[in-house]
Design brief:
The protein has five helices and nine strands; from the N terminus they run H-H-H-E-E-E-H-E-E-E-H-E-E-E. The chain has 199 residues and is α+β, with helices and mostly antiparallel strands. It has one domain. The protein has a seven-stranded mixed β-sheet with strand order 1-2-3-4-7-8-9, sandwiched between helices. Strands 5-6 form a two-stranded antiparallel sheet. Strand 3, helix 4 and strand 4 form a beta-alpha-beta unit. The protein is globular and about 55 Å long.
Length: 199
């Protein structure tokens, strides 16, 4: 599957589930992308979760390895804070020592808003920020591979009662989801995957 088709298929992810999940929904986001990958081709697609290490360092595990049967096709990372380091980790899989990783053709990295700034009515979620120059550098070094970056931005919606009022992170609501396709050192396209609809 080429990059454009792969990115277009991401519109079929159950983003409405993420829209109704509050707090640090890291595990939910991994699960939604795992479900998406398997549903693309249920007869052949498989997932290793949590994924294996890239072979370079102890903390080199990915969130999931997307496979066709037992052959790795893509590496998945979901992150709310260390954007640049996470992209660099994708690069280490593309350069991995293990022969089994040579079949990798793409990486998907999902960045979500996590950090808060401000006080009172000025409180807001910041980010996520796509480290585009780092992604371009990696895809230029590996021209046969592509990276799709997905961003989930959130708005702070102050809750005055109920369980969501207990924690600042429960008061974050999904705003929009965008994706960026990178190949051969260039940003190819940006696509809106999902927009929150106010009720």
């Amino acid at each position: 599957m080429n990059g454009n088709k792969l990115m277009e298929s991401l519109k079929n992810v159950r983003w409405d589930v993420a829209d109704k999940t509050y707090g640090n929904n890291h595990s939910t986001l991994i699960g939604l992308l795992v479900e998406w990958w398997i549903s693309l081709s249920p007869g052949t697609n498989r997932v290793l979760e949590g994924g294996p290490t890239n072979g370079y360092k102890k903390r080199g595990h990915c969130d999931a390895l997307l496979c066709e049967y037992d052959t790795p096709q893509g590496v998945l990372e979901v992150e709310g804070t260390y954007y640049k380091k996470t992209v660099q980790k994708i690069g280490t899989f593309f350069s991995a020592k293990r022969e089994e990783f040579r079949s990798l053709s793409f990486g998907i990295v999902l960045f979500y808003s996590y950090s808060l700034e401000g006080r009172g009515d000025n409180k807001r979620f910041i980010g996520p920020i796509v480290p585009k120059e780092e992604i371009k550098k990696i895809t230029k070094k590996h021209p046969e591979k592509l990276i799709i970056a997905i961003t989930i931005s959130k708005k702070f919606n102050k809750q005055h009662s109920g369980v969501r009022s207990w924690n600042n992170y429960y008061q974050g609501e999904l705003d929009k989801i965008e994706s960026y396709l990178f190949s051969k050192g260039k940003e190819i396209k940006c696509t809106l995957l999902y927009q929150h609809k106010s009720s």
